[in-house]
Amino acid sequence: MDPAEETISHSIAQDFTRTPGPRFRSEGKFSGEEFRQEFLEKWFAEARQQGAKLFIDLDGGYGYAPSFIEEAFGGLARIHGSDAVLKTLLLKSDEEPYLAERAREYIRRCR
Amino acid sequence: MPIAEFTSWGWVELKISLGELVIAVTTGLSAWWVSSIIQKRHASDLALRDLTASLCGDSLDLLHSLSDAIDSECSKAGGPVADVVRQKITRNFQRLSNSIHTIEIAIEEAKFSPVKTALQTVKDEAETLRAQVLDPLVTNPGFDAAQLRQIEGTMRGLRESIIRLKFKVMTSGK
Known about the structure:
The complex is a heterodimer of chains A (111) and B (174).
Chain A: E1 7-11, H1 12-15, H2 32-50, E2 53-57, H3 66-80, H4 82-88, E3 89-92, H5 97-109
Chain B: E1 2-5, E2 15-17, H1 18-74, H2 83-110, H3 116-139, H4 145-171
Antiparallel strand pairs in B: 1-2
Helix pairs in contact in B: 1-2, 1-4, 2-3, 3-4
């Protein structure tokens, strides 16, 4: 990463919820779909507009269902293309490193 | 010109020149040096294998704990799972996932490249288990008997793939 490049940082636990839910809004509260539509897409658009990286911290919550992660990040890649998402998005999960790796995998699969 | 002449015993006559002595000492020292390096590398390689195999053992223990948690909390009554149980199972899964990540770090550090395919199988099995266990916990209708059987089957597969990885770590070359 270019150290001079601007980074916009967000945390799912702080900005959305500490108790992420299912894949779709119809299945329950704090879904991956809700997170993507209400937060992630806006953050992503803002970052691209500014030519910045979007840094998302996955730590701090009660744990994620894989379907939440797939719908949020895979869903973003289905809209904008995986290359654009991989180029802009940076994911971090110190609490469970495979979670961030899995999210990147969902994004790559949308190629 | 010989620097030493030893008494002859019958037809055997020993002579050593300065050059020959230097060559003999150098050869001996080189052999000792190479042998000590090989021994050190062998000991270090064994230690890395032991460590990685022990990490595989930790993953098997954590998989056992996860299995116990699901068995004791989710299979007796059916129906929605209590919040405290969901958190316990999620935490158990996180520990298992992180233990597999630690194995991956050890394998990378030790450069055990022939076991990478076996490691990938373990990771894939763990991700299948993640979806089978954590997705239903979020929507929370509880686990029915068929889901529990499916989870048990995936756990068996994961257990066996960890054991295969452990054997590969112990027996494969670099």
